[in-house]
Write a structure and sequence with these properties.
alpha/beta, Aspartate Aminotransferase, domain 1, Aspartate Aminotransferase, domain 2, 2 domains, three-stranded antiparallel sheet
């Protein structure tokens, strides 16, 4: 059976070049970065080289990169670390309603621990209103956390403008860039970003490696205490093979980003155009300000889970929402935030493409999808 992967937003396959770079660090160069002997020094050198590559892709300094095990850990670190380090200044934090669950759940946990959270609404495209953000800022606001682009609907937020507002008000600004780092340009200087989350497995690197950019001078408390790794901000034995893979993925992305984005945008637009020919179909997210690889729809009279299973019988892997919560039967919080009714949100489909997606695969999906929807509508009616 033909197999077509349309779920690159959930995770990406490891690029063979990345795997090749990683392999020696499992067997021959396996030292602990804290060890003083040659094995340790070799691992430490690989770590610092990787830090430099990853920093370079976002125009940061190497010592501003703190490696973590995942974007979830990095986002928890950003919110909780800033909150507890700066609570004498204030206890108010602003996040958007469409953040990833790990940001929203961190915010809710902080609420239980004495902090106040403002959940900023978005418009029908998923964009925040800059004037609403300015109005929400208080004297005791210590952090604004707005994602660079949404993992569900692909909408890209005005990050540079948000950063400018925060910088002028003297408030830390964090952005979750798990879906954008390596895919579209990021410059932490030009965008006035103080903290940024990036993830390896969203950009053809291995799972188990991510990072938090922490601008020099930012006051933050560590979540993990121990041997003082990562400048004393994140203790744990360093996962050198995966970090080396993360860096190799970043190195490749820097070379191919522009051409890859152009290729994916053409394929994405072909996919969107074809899907919108289906009766009672609707695009979720901004028609233009969206990730090159993201297409998200809702179809009337359809249940998303049933559509996913039907597509799977034809070898097509897709999603109804974020992989972290795809087993939940609750309507997707992002789709509700952009104004969809629960029954509309339940008819959603996310198709996300990537490095190895072909025109033939897009056309195969456009051949199978209308038939699958017609079949399910007949059953539901």
């Amino acid at each position: 059976m033909k197999k077509v992967y349309m779920d690159y937003a959930a995770t990406t396959p490891v690029d063979p070049r990345v795997l090749k770079a990683m392999l020696p660090f499992f067997t021959k160069k396996f030292g602990n970065t804290m060890s003083l002997h040659s094995f340790g020094r070799e691992a430490k050198k690989a770590l610092e080289n990787s830090r430099e590559v990853i920093a370079n892709l976002m125009n940061a300094e190497p010592e501003e990169i703190i490696f973590t095990s995942s974007a979830t850990e990095a986002n928890n670190f950003a919110l909780k670390g800033i909150a507890f380090a700066n609570r004498e200044k204030g206890k108010h934090i602003i996040v958007s309603k469409i953040e990833h669950h790990c940001v929203l759940e961190s915010a809710r946990w902080l609420e239980k621990n004495g902090f106040e959270i403002t959940y900023l609404p978005v418009d029908k495209y998923g964009l925040i209103d800059l004037s609403e953000l300015e109005s929400a800022i208080r004297k005791d606001t210590i952090l604004v956390s707005i994602m660079h682009a949404n993992n569900e609907i692909g909408t890209i937020e005005p990050i540079a403008e948000i950063g400018k507002i925060c910088r002028e008000k003297g408030i830390y600004f964090h952005t979750d860039a798990a879906q954008t780092y390596g895919k579209i340009p990021i410059d932490v200087e030009k965008m006035n970003i103080d903290l940024l989350t990036a993830s390896s497995h969203k950009m053809y690197g291995p799972k188990g490696a991510a990072c938090l950019f922490v601008r020099k001078g930012v006051k933050i408390e560590p979540l993990l205490h121990g041997g003082g790794h990562e400048f004393g901000l994140r203790s744990s034995t360093i996962n050198v093979p995966c970090i080396v893979g993360f860096a190799e993925a970043a190195r490749i992305c820097k070379k191919v980003m522009k051409k890859e984005a152009e290729k994916l945008t053409k394929l994405r637009d072909r996919l969107i155009k074809g899907c919108l020919k289906i009766e009672d179909s609707h695009l979720n997210g901004h028609p233009k300000l969206r990730l090159p690889n993201n297409a998200n729809f809702w179809f009337a009279f359809i249940e998303g889970e049933s559509l996913i299973m039907e597509l799977n019988t034809h070898g097509i892997a897709a999603s109804t929402g974020s992989a972290c919560s795809s087993e939940s039967l609750e309507p997707n919080h992002v789709l509700l935030a952009i104004g969809l009714k629960p029954h509309e949100a339940e008819g959603s489909l996310r198709l996300s493409i990537g490095r190895w997606t072909t025109k033939e695969e897009i056309d195969y999906v456009l051949e199978i999808l209308p038939e699958a929807i017609e079949k399910l509508r007949k059953i539901s009616s």
